[in-house]
Amino acid sequence: MPEYRYVARNEAGVKIEGVFDAANESEAAYALSSGGLYPISIAPVMEQVITGNVRRVRGEQLAAFYSQLSDLLRGGVPLLRSLKILHDQTSNMNFRFVLDNVYRRVESGDTLAEAMGRYQIVFGEMGVQMVRAGSEGGFLEESLAHVAEHTEAQDDLRGRVIGALVYPILLLAFLVVVVIAIMVLIVPNFDALFSDLRNRGELPQMTEWLLFISSRTKYILAFAVPLGVIGLIWYRYWSRTDGGQMIVDGIKLRVPVAGKVYEGFAVSRFCRVLGTLLKNGVPIVKSLGIAGDAIGNLVLNKAIQKASEKISSGSRLASPLSESGCFPKSITEMIAVAEESNTLDTVLISISVSLEKRNWRALDLAVRFIEPIMLILLGVVVLFLVLALMLPLFNMANVT
Questions:
Q1: Are 204 and 194 in contact (CB under 8 A)?
Q2: Is 314 helix (H, G, I), strand (E, B) or coil?
Q3: Residue 38, C-beta contacts closer than 8 angstroms, at least 6 positions apart
Q4: d(CA 343, CA 332)
Q5: Long-range interactions of 218-222: CB distance < 8 A, separation 24+
């Protein structure tokens, strides 16, 4: 009998956590309620594979797996045979290893969700929970198709964001490399040429600044590069701590222009995940936990966790989300109306689609602003270099 880890509150409101055996989540919830506890979350205790061979799988490949498995099951192919077919046609050795182990676990008597749950690094908690809901509710094929659509949409979103930012980032990198090359390789050659003007006090001030910076560029790089590497390593570890991640995620939300776009995509992802889970029969408290993890921002996740606790106490979703101040009022108003009409799952997915369109327009506009700003910055740097080097040459020509 599988083990379930639970979080519940007693009649005094004290939070209690523990693990016990039950046939399924419904039986676990009934047992808790019979014992005078009010369940907040119930999740199976899944053994995690401890191996360095298991890595994440590209979203495109994972979406294809879910879609093909849904098609095979819908076509009447048994589950084990479907898994074997998908295993044999997979070229990715990492994913092939995972599917082989999933097949063996299912063959040994585990459910598909239990077998996939051992590899949450690959399938994700959302995929596992939707497969579990589909298996228990008798709509596994539809559930797999929804996971495939969601995974493909998220992968497409990630690719479009990266594609939109590639040009500005490359332009900035080109600017930095060109400036460093000029300062290190070209400008020092003018130092001796301008020595007479410097001795007579006729060297322009901007040229003095340029030669001063150029003479110290190598030393600056000698210190900046190691310090930068050390800083990146420190930031990588610090940002993974709860305190560091809270600070970083809070800053992301407050960055001018970009912060609103980032927040929009995060809220859109939350609405899509929550709506898809609710549509597939996953309880709202469990769905909120999964959607909160999928949102990718600890500040917003904390607000969702507080909302989940209030829902367990009988509150509705819109009210605690609105009180958190982390979600746009227009979104919480639509959620409130959806709760009244009992169409929350459909409305959440519609909100996600609408938000994505709005976010893409904002992102395109922001990128269009970045490109001319980068070109203007490049022009200003080039103009400064040209003037700093050419003005002394004009002075020398006039003297002669």
A1: no
A2: coil
A3: 8, 9, 10, 32, 312, 313
A4: 14
A5: 218/184, 221/180, 221/184
Looking at this protein, which amino acid is placed at residue 306? K
Matching residue, tokens 């610090």: 238
DSSP string, 55-84: ----HHHHHHHHHHHHHHHHTT--HHHHHH
- Read off the pLDDT of residues 222-233 as tens digits, 9 standing for 90 and up: 888 888 899 889
Tell me the C-alpha to C-alpha distance, in Å, between residue 369 and each of 262, 303, 362, 373: 16, 32, 11, 6
- Listed in sequence order, the residues at least 6 apart from 245 whose beta carbon sits closer than 8 Å to its beta carbon are 239, 298
Residues 6+ apart with CB under 8 A from 389: 187, 190, 207, 210
The hierarchical CATH code for the domain 59-144 is 1.20.81.30
Length of the chain: 400
From residue 50, alpha-carbon distances to 53, 55, 97, 201 in Å are 9, 11, 13, 71
pLDDT digits (tens, 9 = 90+) for 317-348: 888 888 888 788 888 888 888 888 888 888 88
State the Cα torsion 60-61-62-64 to the nearest 10°.
90
Q: Which residues contact 85 (CB under 8 A, 6 or more apart)?
A: 72, 77
